[in-house]
Amino acid sequence: MPPTMIRPQNDVSLRRLIDERKPGHSLPASFYTSDEVFNLDLDAIFGKHWIFVASVAEIREPGDYVTIEFGKTSVIVIRDDDEQVQVLHNVCRHRGARILLPGAGSVGNLVCGYHQWTYSPDGELIYASAAEEGFDKSCYSLRKVAFRVISGLIFINMSDEPNTDIDPVAEIVEPYFDAHQLGRAKVAKQIDLIEEGNWKLTLENNRECYHCDLHPELGCTYFITWGYPEDQIPPHLQDVHQRYLAAEAELEEKCIERGIHYKGNEQLDTRTFGFRVQREALDGEGESYSLTGAKLVNKLLGDFDDAKLGRLSMHTQPNFWCHFMADHAITFAVLPIAPGRTLVRTTWLVHEDAVEGVDYNVDDLTHVWRETNNQDAHFVELAQKGVTDPAYVPGPYMPSEYQVNAFCNWYLDRLNDYIEEDPS
Ligand code: FES
Ligand SMILES: [Fe+2]
Q: Whose Cα sits closest to atom 1 in ligand 1?
């Protein structure tokens, strides 16, 4: 059992806390505010389930790396000399020092800054000075972390025995994503945003568009009726809904004609690796997240010859969403820092041959989601302040927030699994 757990003496209180949650309602305050639940989340959720960390476009060349931090953990996602992805614990096998500081870059080898033990990018110890005779370097490779690449998206699992539900999900979603060819993409921009709220509030906020009236830039192209049951679309969004229906019909026809996967598949709280995938239309020109809907990158991803393919979007529990357009892709990783602090890492990816300043402009490319992320960070901060107030009582999710409810269901089911797995 991991040492940070609040078990065994607190299992009863954990069970009580889980049971306290009223179905269809936001979570009791401690889930968002307490150190104990935060540590539990790191163990039971981020320590056991498939976490999105980066895409292959972030580590294109041998030696390219990015470090990923959450809770007390740091891992190195690196391309080795055989061009394979490796995910390694960022903990030296000598006396445990951090090897790489947080960030991204490129290295020949991984050299610990303390006594210079040196590892190849696949984690093998290749040099330890002044070792005694017979010292077996092969016993001191960096510890590996399980990972799985889905259409260029890298997911890791910190468990020694990772659940295998990612395999059937990969089979389902890869046909949607493969044509975007992330292996031939590069990073145009990456922005780390700290949200002053619990990671679950970040996720909850992402899983509904009930608040989307307050995203003016996003609303230029994203149909903000998303999530509403057809018969509950508010009167002021009826015209948006009509445009959505027309755009969806056009997109569907094109997808059928071209054999492009588009139909929604939603299994957010019915399996261990909860996910949702769908290609959906965009408003306006229908091509990209600009203010008019027109494409933002001249060179399209993969071998696309048509910019008007809407957005291919996926959610996975517990920390990921993305939007893939024909001209660029955006990935979002949510990484918990503290009970009331969360990192949201947004990465804009374009075709490797797209030239900045010629084929795209970074400010324009990132404008809509920079603004949207900042607006969302504000909402998350407001929510964190409110749930920390002693006056907070959980409130009901509206029908259009059913995916928030699905996220909470998934989360609580995983906590239950965790307790049942090892009831000691
Ligand atoms: S702790 Fe890394 S070389 Fe000593
Ligand atoms: Fe939002």
A: 95
Q: What residue spans define the domains of the chain?
A: 51-148, 166-391+395-401
CA 332 to centroid of ligand 1, rounded, Å: 33
213-233 as b/e, with b when 16 or more CB fall inside 10 Å? Answer: eebebbbbbbbbbbbbeeeeb
How many Å lie between the centroid of ligand 2 and the Cα of residue 205?
6
Distances (CA, A) of 29 to 19, 22, 105, 395: 13, 12, 39, 11
Cis ω before 8 (30° cut-off from 0): yes
Q: What is the pLDDT of residue 145?
A: 98
Which residues place a Cβ less than 5 A from the ion ligand 2?
376
Q: What is the pTM of this model?
A: 0.96
The atom of ligand 1 lying closest to the CA of 97 is 1
The pLDDT of residue 122: 98
Domain 166-391+395-401 has what CATH class?
alpha beta
| pLDDT grade for 148, boundaries at 50, 70 and 90 | very high
Q: What is the CATH number of domain 51-148?
A: 2.102.10.10
